[in-house]
Amino acid sequence: MTRRNLIVTGVAATAGVAVAARLADQYGLIPPDSGGIYGPGESLTYAAQRLLTGSSLAREFPTSKISKSPYANGKPPADEIFTREQANGFADWKLSLQGMVARPATYSLADLRALPARSQITQLACEEGWSYIAQWDGVPLSHVLNLAGVLPQAKYVVYGSIPIKRRRWDSLDLDEAMHPQTLITYGMNGVDLPVGHGGPLRLRVPRQLGYKSIKFMTTITVTDSLKGIGKGRGSSVADGTYSWYAGI
Ligand SMILES: Nc1nc2c(c(=O)[nH]1)N[C@H]1C(S)=C(S)[C@@H](COP(=O)(O)O)O[C@H]1N2
Ligand SMILES: [Mo]
After folding, report:
1. Pocket of ligand 1 (CB under 6 A)
2. Domains and CATH numbers, the chain
3. Which region, left, alpha or beta, applies to residue 79 given φ > 0 means left and ψ of -120 to 50 means alpha?
């Protein structure tokens, strides 16, 4: 049987969480939030989506579908560091790339803009039920990861926002991090990424719900384990009540 058949048959025939969990384990597809009451369900969703949808692409739209008034969720940080950076046109904004890489690096916005760019028109869908379509411009995360040289034992890419009071961080498995549509974005709809939408830098992860698209990004860390970070569930929101994997 193919992997796909095996999963479909296994899941459909038994609808058994234990079977699914065993299969997921076999393929190394146990998510960091696999513990607790919802854990087996998280494993089932993550493993099934990874095995069935593989490297599929998020839908891209024509320019005519770009939303006229995209919803900016929340306010830009009222934090002093952010305000100072903003007043300075984000000239000193830095993105650091560290952890399990051969060549750690720090990028300014100008450095990122000098790298090969990609634009894509995708939908941002919030878990609350609203969504909008926009064009995002940036550099594929895979490009900077390849420049840095990801070490063979690495499994996850952790990324986070400016250390304001409520620093937001999240992580992706390497499949999602290396996916061609996962972008470090500095532009939206042809202009600099507005602060309402996470400017000057945000990660766009169009195959997952909006909350994985962290705004005001300053750090990227490559790691083989999420255990020591926060409560070990893979993201600041998964440390709360959200699921780590948010595939659409
Ligand atoms: N730093 C940071 N990133 C964040 C959030 C946040 O509160 N802080 N909210 C997330 C959520 S829940 C969603 S739905 C999207 C909203 O993106 P938007 O403001 O462009 O609509 O940003 C995500 N990224
Ligand atoms: Mo959201």
Report:
1. 71-74, 124, 126, 161, 168, 197-198, 210-211, 213-216
2. 1-54 (no CATH), 57-248 (3.90.420.10)
3. beta
